[in-house]
């Protein structure tokens, strides 16, 4: 065969179709016709979003059935704000790698949540089932759990393994349910000694539940029916820092000298809105904030406060102290007290011998009629003094009443019966409130030296243009007068009276 014939044969071999490929001989690495070299898209339930391979977000889609097509790789599943009424066991059991399950704000009932629903979720750490229709808690939650939120349901019963035997459990939220003491078994938290936050507020407890975790740092029991804290109920909670017992039915007989004495880390105690007539005994030294407002306290005894020497804030508003309920020196043990609230107690004078380091004294809506030369002398460090809505008259406010208050920044005398500005005001004042008095004149002398004043409130007095003396604003520098949409800047050294000061709602402040 000659050379041209050889070339022709080779060309025919190249042009003729080869044998059909046999099964199993395809090159898997080579894309076939109509296929992309990119990996196939991840499975994601319709209308949901899957921002990561381990995350499925079906929030707020008005779903009525549990979505299918959820990949087994899912670790974080959000189904909140839907219309789900039940969780199918067969769908949930496939998701054994789930770490976060958010079912907040659905219609799930206890009947729609099978007992074995969470058995296969051995890695679950966070479960949120708040705002559903559960009447009992799940009988079993995984041992791996860290956070459980069952708030705002209708839960009446907890089981031993709902929260028990969970060594990693840190936070449990059960507020806004219908739990009573009968619905919380004594061993509800056995084997779960890492719980730091427990919220049981807005339930139906009649006494503080015993056998709570010793690891607690925050305990919320407000808005219950608690009339008693059983002896020893808080003896193990030595790490507790915040205790909320407001809006209950506690009386003096429901507490004893040991109730709080073992709480060596306690910093915040709220006992407001109860029925106490005395300050509780046995308060710990670590306590910084004590809220006793809206009780029936008639007497404050120094002996009851000796243990709480670290107290910084004492709130006693709306009690029944009257003229004799806070005797001189009663608060002397509280050497570091920063703020004292005595709003609405029927006091007829400023309490004597207050702690020297007091920074804020809040006394509005009492019956204080006199302010002598020495009544505030014991508290030279005051920065805020509120005597609004008392019975003070100009004749009974001594001209040296504020002389020693050199650090005072805010003075509220609103709602009294003053007819002229008090004399001897501290030169460091930033705020002076005198609205709703009977002021008939403004003179320059009481305002002399108040060059740091930022706000002067004079609304609802009896001032007219002719009642403001020349030079009144001289020391106050560029104060701004505002009334509704009207504004007027007073010149830095204006000797003339302010033409807008007849307006009944007047606020003078820095420009």
Automatic annotation (TrEMBL):
GO CC terms of this entry: extracellular matrix; extracellular space
InterPro entries found in the cross-reference section: Leu-rich_rpt (IPR001611), Leu-rich_rpt_4 (IPR025875), Leu-rich_rpt_typical-subtyp (IPR003591), LRR_dom_sf (IPR032675), SLRP (IPR050333)
Pfam families: LRR_1, LRR_4, LRR_8
Keywords: Leucine-rich repeat, Repeat, Signal
Record flagged with keyword Repeat: yes
Highest taxon in the source lineage: Eukaryota
Keyword Cell membrane: no
SMART domains reported for this sequence: LRR_BAC, LRR_SD22, LRR_TYP
Signal peptide interval: 1-23
Cited Gene3D superfamilies: Ribonuclease Inhibitor
Protein name: Podocan like 1
The encoding gene: LOC718495
């Amino acid at each position: 065969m000659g050379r041209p014939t050889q070339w022709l044969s080779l060309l025919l071999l190249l042009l003729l179709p080869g044998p059909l490929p046999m099964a199993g001989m395809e090159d898997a690495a080579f894309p076939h016709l109509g296929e992309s070299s990119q990996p196939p898209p991840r499975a994601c339930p319709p209308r949901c979003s899957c921002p990561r391979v381990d995350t499925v977000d079906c929030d707020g889609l008005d779903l009525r059935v549990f979505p299918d097509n959820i990949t087994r790789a899912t670790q974080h599943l959000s189904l909140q704000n839907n219309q789900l009424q039940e969780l199918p066991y067969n769908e949930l059991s496939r998701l054994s790698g789930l770490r976060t399950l958010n079912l907040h704000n659905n219609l799930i009932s206890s009947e729609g949540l099978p007992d074995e629903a969470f058995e296969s979720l051995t890695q679950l750490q966070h479960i949120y089932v708040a705002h559903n229709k559960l009447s009992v808690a799940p009988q079993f939650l995984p041992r791996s759990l860290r956070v459980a939120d069952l708030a705002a349901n209708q839960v009446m019963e907890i089981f031993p393994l709902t929260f028990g035997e969970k060594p990693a459990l840190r936070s449990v939220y059960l507020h806004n349910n219908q739990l009573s003491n009968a619905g919380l078994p004594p061993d509800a938290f056995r084997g779960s000694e890492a719980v730091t936050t427990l919220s049981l507020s807005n339930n139906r407890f009649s006494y503080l539940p015993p056998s709570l975790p010793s690891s607690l740092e925050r305990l919320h029991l407000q808005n219950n029916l608690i009339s008693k804290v059983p002896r020893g109920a808080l003896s193990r909670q030595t790490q507790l820092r915040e205790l909320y017992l407001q809006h209950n039915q506690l009386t003096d007989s429901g507490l004893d000298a040991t109730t709080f004495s073992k709480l060596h880390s306690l910093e915040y105690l709220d006992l407001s809105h109860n029925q106490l007539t005395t300050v509780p005994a046995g308060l710990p030294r670590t306590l910084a904030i004590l809220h006793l407002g809206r009780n029936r306290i008639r007497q404050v005894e120094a002996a009851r406060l000796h243990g709480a020497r670290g107290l910084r804030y004492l709130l006693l508003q709306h009690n029944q102290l009257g003229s004799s309920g806070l005797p001189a020196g009663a608060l002397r043990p509280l050497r570091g007290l920063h703020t004292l609230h005595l709003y609405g107690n029927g006091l007829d004078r400023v309490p004597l011998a207050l702690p020297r380091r007091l920074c804020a004294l809040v006394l509005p809506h009492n019956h204080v009629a006199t302010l002598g030369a020495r009544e505030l002398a014991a508290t030279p460090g005051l920065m805020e003094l509120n005597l609004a809505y008392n019975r003070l008259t100009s004749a009974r406010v001594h001209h040296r009443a504020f002389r020693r208050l050199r650090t005072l920044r805010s003075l509220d005398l609103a709602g009294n019966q003053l007819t002229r500005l008090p004399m001897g005001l501290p030169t460091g004042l930033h705020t002076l409130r005198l609205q709703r008095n009977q002021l008939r004149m403004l003179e320059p002398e009481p305002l002399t030296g108040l060059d740091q004043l930022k706000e002067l409130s004079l609304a609802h007095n009896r001032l007219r243009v002719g009642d403001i003396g020349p030079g009144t604003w001289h020391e106050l520098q560029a104060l701004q007068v505002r009334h509704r949409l009207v504004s007027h800047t007073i010149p830095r050294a204006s000797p003339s009276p302010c033409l807008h000061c007849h307006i009944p709602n007047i606020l003078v402040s820095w420009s």
